[in-house]
Amino acid sequence: MYPTLSDLTKDIFGFSIPLPIKMFGLFVAIAFLVAMLLLKKELKRRESEGWLQPCRELTWVGKQISSWEIFFTGLITLLMGLALIVFARNRFSFDGDPYDGIVLMDLAFALILAVLVAFIRYYFKSLKAAGKPELKVISHWPHERTDTIIGIAAVAGIVGAKLFDGLENWSSYIAHPADFFAFSGLTFYGGLIVASMAILYYAHQKHIDKWQLADSAAPVLMLAYGIGRIGCHMAGDGDWGIVNSFQKPVKWLPDWLWSYTYPHNVSDQGVLIPGCTGEHCFQLPIGVFPTSLYEFVVCTLLFLVLWKLRKIITSPGRLFGIYLIMNGAERFLIELIRVNNKYDLGFVKPTQAELISMGLFLTGCLIVYVSSRKTKYNPE
Hints:
The protein has twelve helices and four strands. It is mostly helical. The chain has two domains: about 5-50 and about 210-370, no CATH class; about 65-130. Mean pLDDT is about 80; it is low at about 90-100 and about 180-185.
């Protein structure tokens, strides 16, 4: 396993390159980047088909940058600068408290950097704002808001993922409340639900057709989830299956694809690896199902299906309904061989993901049924 990108480069090239990038975080970033590119491409296509229309808004042209914009630019730069300085001093490590051990010199350097970046932004914004400010009506197409949509999805998704993980592991967060602010421990469905609510609210505010946006995002969501799962597998973050003591069904199947012990996993679970020194020297004593790898393969195939269907299905919401059905079924089935916390409901003990996946499956069925009454998109 490769907890960091440095571990991967060392395995490939034989020497370590000090890159301060966590493997899971890297794949999350890749997932968001791919999502942004594909979503923008699909929104443009729907605009060319006449299914999406621009929103006309009153916008200030030539207006000077506000004091609040300058302040927040400087504040964000200050925090990022402090983080980078301390990470560099600690040999590019993201372990522990990133703001531990800050000295006056670090603060002064980061403050100078923050002031410089804020001034540069003020300068270039001032050049664009030359002349008298005017209030004009400008048309904004949905694809022009893709960056904002992805940004909302990232922030709301992480918050939702942490909230739902807190509900699933309440006792752990009560014992260690600081863990809530760590990047580990993210529940996908929590992120999906909260991010969807935030994006739908934004779409309503900007007069973007919600069903068309949902249909545009359906294939993208499936692929982004699959890419994220590869990050889980590469890092060995604990999102694996139950013990697999069964014999391989066919001889040609690689051992690591059937049962895997996740050596050097980032979560440090299992037993010590003989002769290993340094960090992450653990592996599972018995092989488990590599479920995160299975999900990547399945979700990639489902993405290809949805990507093909997007030009065939024209009923509003139907493609998104199919996505919910696929996603719910895939996650429910993988939960049967996946390690997870269970809720004791007396007669049954489901996991949080099983409950939500069943809800998404039924919701998808309902959306497909309702959308079957319409034959094509009706542009507003």
